[in-house]
Fold these 2 entries.
Entry 1:
Amino acid sequence: MCGIVGVISDEDCQKYIFDGLKLVQYRGYDSVGICQKNNDTLKVDKVKGLIDKLVCKTSNLEGCKVAIGHTRWATHGSVCEENAHPIEGKDKEWVIVHNGIVENYQQLMCNLQREGEVFKTQTDSESIALLLSLNNFDDPIKNLIWTIKQLKGSYAICAVKKESNNYIYAAKNKSPLYAFCNDKITMLASDPICFPDGDYYKFEDGEVCVAKKGEIVFYNLNGVVIEKQKQKFQPIREKADKGDYEHYMLKEIYETPEALKNLTKNFLNIDIKNIKKLKFSNVKLIGCGTAYHSCLMGAIYFRKFLKIDAEAIYASEFRYGDYVIGSKTLCIFVSQSGETADTIAALLKAKTKKAKILSFTNVPYSTISSLSNIVIPISAGPEIAVASTKAYSCQVAGLYLLVMALKGEKHYYKALKQVCELANETEKFFINMADFAQDIAQKQKVFFIGKDSDYVTALEGALKLKEISYINCSALPAGELKHGTISLIESKTPIIVIITNKNLYEKVMNSALEAKSRGGKLYLISYKPPEICELENFEFCLSLPKVAQPLLCVVSILPLQLLSYNVSVLKGLDPDKPRNLAKSVTVE
Ligand code: AGP
């Protein structure tokens, strides 16, 4: 997944591109680049690393009227300046930026090399730039259409040509691409958050366009001009900034209470009767990473409160597994970005099986939202940090509200009240995890254990810590420790114990003490303080505020989010942009 931006303007092209790239760098930040164009003069600048480095390096192209930019998350070819986009074609006649994967690029590369073409990069995208130069149709849009007909896979492409026209040629298939045009500026981007306020176009698969000053002409793959409706502008997402916080992640953790309040407000607009009319007998909850973990919680709520057969499945597994679904299945897709490729593919597969499709997303105009029968907004506000925090809390609380709403009106209104109380309690509950983090920061491995919903919290806590501190973390059901993993426990190995269910307190405590007897160090997050006699067993104890028991999983993740943030900062890492990751995984 990468971020692309294009602009046509009589002035400030470079500024528009840099501002736009900063807004889409959540999609990847291994390297970044810009191509400026003034008639048949093209100037490419690119760097390995972040945008600020590029800003320092890039000089203005005199009279620049067009620019395209790219922020990369590497899929093919190492992270280096040569493989950064923009990518130049033969004789630098064409320059492109590409988000997606050319699945048949090896075949294309062999064909091109056989014709004497020389690849300068290790990227699949270069095959696009070279193909564009291979034909000299009278109209460059024909070059583009011919080229993309050679491609298999996903792409959002912006391309400029060494020609007197100051145009951008663009194409889209499976990777998101949007366009904006008024009399002052024309823009293209992976996310409409880059645009000025106003209605904009959303590309559909198989569409191409020529973007000009004041006009965008769309074509289908037969080269026929098509008329497109604009997407109604809505305050898509206020343009997030860090405010007084050092990192987005910390800000977004502290925004959890407000996000939960927004969730309850927006949930009241959901037509629950519409969902009840779907008449389903079983539920599959599908997502990736953190979103999968909220699916696990949702499955617990469906089973516990509605006695419905409910299962959480990784989207990347659902795509290729033989899961039994049909017209009586409600498939719930959870995705913060609404652009995760595996989740989109899983949704499209569920559609072919006639399942009912409901999605929870944090981006109303996203691909997943547009593909769903019913959309429930997560309402968390912009989440920029790669590690998901407030969105997870809202996903879990949102699934709880959905289940309670389906259970009946009085349960629903009680649940809304419980989530508001949860928001108020979390407002007061932000603890200092610095000492705990000191204990953990230099460890090579950390284990998280819990039962039932606490096992889900253990999974999410482990993912948070590993993805931003690079410590090898494992989560497992407390009862599973003795079935193998306990062999990894050695002196001072940290074991983080999560208990929010009083009926399970003894059982989990026994598992924890088994680990301690082998030298492990215990850290307890619990619904109640341990007995005095137990205190000596723990390096650290934290008791949680009183909230409705089914929502304790939302409050128990907060200290684990803060722990992972503190450990990452202690290790001198960037919690917002962890290595090898991106906020939205829009490729398989
Ligand atoms: C969460 O901290 C990770 N960044 C990652 O697991 C993420 O949850 C996953 O990629 C799914 O993203 P989505 O919610 O946007 O679909």
Entry 2:
Amino acid sequence: MTNLTHLNIAQALEGLKKKEFTSVELTQAHVKATEEFRHLNAYVTETSELALKQAAESDARRAKGQVGLLEGIPLAIKDLYCTKGVRTTASSRILDNFVPPYESTVSGNLFRDGAVMLGKTSLDEFAMGSSNTTSAYGNVISPWKRNNGDNADLVPGGSSGGSSAIVAARAAMGATGTDTGGSIRQPASFTGIAGIKPTYGRCSRWGIIAFASSLDQAGPFARTVEDCALMLRSMAGYDPKDSTCADRPVPDYTAALTGNVKGLRVGIPKEYNVEGLSPEIAKLWDQGKDWLKSGGAEIVDISLPHSKYALPVYYIIAPAECSSNLARYDGIRYGVRAEGESLNDVYMNTRAQGFGDEVKRRIMIGTYVLSAGYYDAYYTKAQKIRRLIAEDFARAFEKCDVILSPTAPSAAFAIGENQDDPIKMYLNDVFTIPASLAGLPGMSVPAGLDSQGLPLGLQIIGKAWDEETVLRTGHFVETAANFTAMPQMLMKKAA
Ligand code: GLN
């Protein structure tokens, strides 16, 4: 039998259909890989037993001819998605003992379509971060190493770092992420896999623990664009339980992967040529333009003049919303409680002990920008600029169909680097945050390696609801880049 963990989802579905192997066998191979890669600390909770049970049920369904879109495919679920009866922590001490009595709509959609759950992946606490170093359960380690022999442990990106690390390690075929300002695209870029954040409202947020409600979106990670398309089709769709979830038909995203970019107008925003952009990344970006041009696409210069305000605007709006969303963790209704002499003491002790430093920093910033006297100066102003950023994109999309940019300004850094400087950490998302503020779909596709042997991604941003063109462009870039590199530890295993 072929190495089952090296198949992608589309190939595995084919193999299952042809009865070359069963979902139980496929899942067993991934459970074994989960154990082998435990040192990456990608999971908060492994659910191997549940996975094998779900796989057996899937095989039974398949035998009866009931075959869902992702029938029998083992996936990992970010531990921000509430999973019925399975501990869900948001990687925070404050939810250490939280077992949801309900299933998030998106994970429920995946199970409805036959997916199998390997476990709940670690994240930056409450999805706040870019390195998966703020989890209460420790750092997640990327399966990648630099080729300079320093053997430093690298970050898998964040906040969905457990998901990106485990998919890159080929211990899960795909995983869910959430992206508020870049948490799917940046970790995908850091670990050499694909990931898409759909349009805001494409997937239901119901049952996904809220960070910043006007920005949070669910999306998939997988090793190919086609697999992302398959997963997104299952995850997306109208849900009356989320009033911001759009009542729109979900297209067959795989049908959009035509391989044809003839006549496609690809916008290059001049403002994304930020100071300090590494020459290697600039080169890859040029390479991306050349690939698209050789496929018959037209490269057009565009301007997104308010881009420079995106980070400051995000770091007002996201903390403002988080300070409100996280007010519910008071030790009374959810999770862990620290005792105290009065009710106020219970609140204060619970929150002091339950939240980590980054979460506290954001709650404080958010409370400040929403406070009387500062609300207009910060929050209202940020909302106005957010509108201008969205209008920049609307204007740009009169001239182009998609936008091409780097996903992140650097390759993965070592654990601990950037840690003492929150602003430097926040800069990771300069290219991803503008599209988040505008609610637009964005995807990262692995496109090359830097001189240290680390993956770099290219980002494709699309018009609202036009995930199909994003995926088509991503698929074209993926094919042109022919990214076959794997983390060294996997090559050793294969050898
Ligand atoms: N890195 C960004 C932040 O820290 C984005 C996180 C996310 O998308 N969840 O807020």
